[in-house]
Amino acid sequence: MPIAKHLHKYKKIDLGRNGNKFLVFKCMRPACTHYLAIHLAEGKLCECNRCGEPMILTKASMSLTKPHCANCVKRKKSADVETISEFLAGTKT
Fold first, then answer.
1. Predicted TM-score of the model (pTM)
2. 42-45 LR contacts (CB < 8 Å, sep 24+)
């Protein structure tokens, strides 16, 4: 069995036909023909689609079309968090 010479960079696609869904991860590298069934993907090592660093596929990342690591998640700050931060820093009275 050949060993991959790169980390796969996955994108979720649907290979199903006639209304049937068959979701798989396809490697987005130009010369790579690797596919991985969704139910076998958890725990596999791949490359993050945002930062390019190695990551392990988790249930949370597998729900995304282009999986990315937990470090690349954009967290939204609520107004309350900003207000509390300013108050603690002493900039707001």
1. 0.70
2. 45/7
3-state secondary structure of 82: helix
- In a 13 Å sphere around the CA of 63, the CA atoms on its Cβ side amount to 3
Q: How far apart are CA 18 and CA 93, in angstroms?
A: 63
Asked if 43 contacts 56 with a C-beta cutoff of 8 angstroms, the reply is yes
Per-residue pLDDT of the chain (93 residues; tens, 9 = 90+): 566 688 999 999 999 888 888 999 999 999 999 999 999 999 999 999 999 999 999 999 999 999 999 888 765 555 566 676 777 787 655
| CB 47, CB 69: distance < 8 Å | no
